[in-house]
Amino acid sequence: MKKTLSLITLNAGLLMIAYGWLLAFWQQSVNINPVSSDFLIPELPDPQILLRDFPKPPKSLPVLSPVKTPLPNYMGMDEQIWGKNQQAGDKIALLKSIDNSLRYLSSPQAITDYRKYTIPGITRDRVIRSLTRFRQLVRTSGDAAQLWSEVQKEFVFYQSIGRDGLGNVLFTAYYEPVYDASRTPTSEYRYPLYRLPPNLKSWSKPHPTRKQLEGKDGLQADKGKLKGLELFWLRDRLEAYLIHIQGSAKLRLTDGTITTVGYAGNTAYNYSSIGKALADDGKLPLENLTLPVIWQYFHQNPQELDNYLPRDRSFVFFQENYGRPATGSISVPLTADRSIATDKSIMPPGALALIHAPLPYADANQKIQFNTVSRYVLDQDTGGAIKGAGRVDYFLGTGKVAQQRAGMTVSNGYLYYLLLKQ
Asked: Which residue ranges traverse the bilayer (predicted)?
């Protein structure tokens, strides 16, 4: 599986991190009305349910099914294209994201991918025609209502079965962090990111754990298999670790230049959440356990990093991307608030989708608030933690605000793919 940005991004571990903050919010205000479709879709559940495993849908149910009854108008009102939620309109960004998908769909890789795609009615040719027509509608529509009216006339909505057979899809988010780094080790920059070992495929299994590769303190890798594979050095061990979680980063180097790193490979272990471990050990209360709280805890108790980081046995390797933007699994740049990651073994790569879910936004004072929104998005990425029809990871862009939003994103919503009527 190829993954260039979010191999192990905000998954069950982030659900635990975000749970406490979201509990109060959900109890007060978040709700989505039932959707008129063939599925019996309940209102969004209590947030505690978000942390539990839903009953898996019967294997006899198709992953995606055409909706036979009209969706309510609120489902398709993507006002962000023209500006909403304290943010400028992003029509140009949406059009570029569509163009990125069309470029992928014209590639030999897309031809190969769609030869293996088995859901009836969803073909590479139909996806291309759908994107081309939708692009025209975005350019000519004057507002969200006009665009939605035209989309309803011309497109069929294929709804994801979700993780319960009722259409409930769990949304999390990921981002590209920005950190200071050095190309050489110094007394200040001590914690490395590593290149992909050229002989990784020949490593015996089980692979070495994180602790075995870099030591309990994260500084012993030059004594083992990773010696000579250092790519960059970070000043903060936790920053280096968060790059492992996100799968990419933008780096400000000591000489004043900017570069980027992206995912190149990983060891054969699943990610284990340090946030969950802290809560399980009683170090931090589950209530209000956000990413900034965890960050503050480790900066106040740096010795605890030696205890908790090695509990995550997984390890990620990187490559330098020389300033190129964050890139998805279909090898195109990702677009903030317009790219999603799904399970590409079942979802159509590069396709146009519509999501409807509560998502966090920063207001003019950088305060995060939630709004239940609809977004036209492009399915351009995948992730090791994004499995099944009931999971979507939403790309939020680069930097601190994106990080803050991603740390608070966990909600149930709905996912539809848009295909032109036959």
From this structure: 7-26
> Over the stretch 248-299, which tens digit does the pLDDT of each residue have?
899 999 999 999 998 888 999 988 889 889 999 999 987 767 777 888 999 9
Instruction: Retrieve residue 22's tokens.
Output: 């979201």
Cβ of 270: how many Cβ atoms within 10 Å?
13
Distances (CA, A) of 125 to 17, 75, 139, 350: 41, 26, 22, 12
Strands 368-381 and 339-341: parallel
Using CA atoms, how far apart are residues 115 and 128, in angstroms rounded to an integer? 15
* Burial per residue of 43-72, b for 16 or more beta-carbon CB atoms within 10 angstroms, e otherwise: ebeebeebeeebeebeeeeebbbbbeeebe
Q: What is the pLDDT of residues 288-341, one digit of tens each?
A: 677 778 889 999 999 999 999 999 999 999 999 999 999 999 999 999 999 999
Answer whether the bond into residue 206 is a cis peptide, omega within 30°: yes
Assigned token pair, 228: 């000579």
For 394, the token pair is 């939403």
Q: Distance between CA atoms of 333 and 355, rounded to whole angstroms? A: 20
Cα 10 to Cα 7: distance, rounded to the nearest angstrom: 9
> How many alpha carbons fall within 13 Å on the CB side of residue 16?
15
Write down the pTM of the prediction: 0.80
Q: Which of 174, 298, 344 is nearest to 245 (CA)?
A: 174
